[in-house]
Amino acid sequence: MMDRVFYTKGHGTSNDFVILPDPDGELELTPALVAALCDRRRGIGGDGVLRVVRAAKHPSSVELAADAEWFMDYWNSDGSIAEMCGNGVRVFARYLVENGLATPGPAGLPVATRAGIMHAVVQGDIISVRMTTPRVYAASTATVGALTVPGIAVDCGNPHLVCGLHDGVALGGLDLTTAPVVDKALFGAGVNVEFVEPAGDLEGRDRHVTMRVHERGSGETMSCGTGALAVGAVALREAGLTSGSVAVDVLGGRLVITCDDEGAWWLAGPAVLVASGEVDVAALAL
């Protein structure tokens, strides 16, 4: 086990991450270490860990190395591994650019993930990522306390269940301190559950909604990029639109989902780095 680990802390709309530079894949990263780093009282605190490793140096991304130099090795805060994190990609791209590890070109900066290669476009404070095309594939439900809400399953490279609230149910009144109960036969590997209510009209956007999310492996988070993508896909689908733009307000700010005229899906929002330092691994509660 290493004695000390260098890190950077960053977030996208308050979806926060511990970023670990590990270009050559030498860190002994374990579920226990990830959970300890993400502990908000005894560690650094975060919704997950982003390990920055060259694609050619990680077994999960070797086949992608010809098209992307860097692999985002994403771990949830409980130490489990996830396929994809939309806000994570945006924060990851910010880290690469600000540390001189990559220069974004006209087509964007390629980032390898377990869900494939994403392309990030840096425009000042805003980073947009071309995402995997979301696939709506089933109807299901989520139960919170005594409330059962119908939902739509969406694959965004990772699984989501988008549940629209109706009949006067208030989004702010939901208790998401525990995971919603879902159909385990449909979501055998777990699922991120988004609860959504409409918001007022917003100039320049086809739809405007507010969202809360319970992420598998992390609990309720302030924001979820792939969750916003799933919500945007359902919102445009329900409006009968094949392209358009959806503003998704999360607890940590606003994300914008766009499906352009060529069928490409984009997630846009701010991404910032707030601190860097060194962790004494022996002092963590492993």
From TrEMBL:
Entries under PROSITE patterns matching the protein: DAP_EPIMERASE
Sorted UniProt keywords: Amino-acid biosynthesis, Cytoplasm, Isomerase, Lysine biosynthesis
One Pfam family it belongs to: DAP_epimerase
Protein's pathway: Amino-acid biosynthesis; L-lysine biosynthesis via DAP pathway; DL-2,6-diaminopimelate from LL-2,6-diaminopimelate: step 1/1
A GO MF label: diaminopimelate epimerase activity
InterPro entries per the UniProt record, alphabetical: DAP_epimerase_AS, DAP_epimerase_DapF
EC numbers on record: 5.1.1.7
SUPFAM superfamilies: Diaminopimelate epimerase-like
Swiss-Prot/TrEMBL catalytic activity: (2S,6S)-2,6-diaminopimelate = meso-2,6-diaminopimelate
Origin: domain of life: Bacteria
Predominant place of localization: cytoplasm
Cellular component, GO annotation: cytosol
GO biological process: lysine biosynthetic process via diaminopimelate
Site (described: Could be important to modulate the pK values of the two catalytic cysteine residues): H160, E215
Active site: C85, C224
Location in or out of the cell: Cytoplasm
Residue sites binding substrate per the record: N15, N76, G86, N87, N158, N192, E215, R216, G225, T226
Enzyme class, spelled out: isomerase
Family assignment from sequence similarity: Belongs to the diaminopimelate epimerase family.
Function text: Catalyzes the stereoinversion of LL-2,6-diaminopimelate (L,L-DAP) to meso-diaminopimelate (meso-DAP), a precursor of L-lysine and an essential component of the bacterial peptidoglycan.
Quaternary organization: Homodimer.
Protein name: Diaminopimelate epimerase
Organism field: Actinoplanes cyaneus
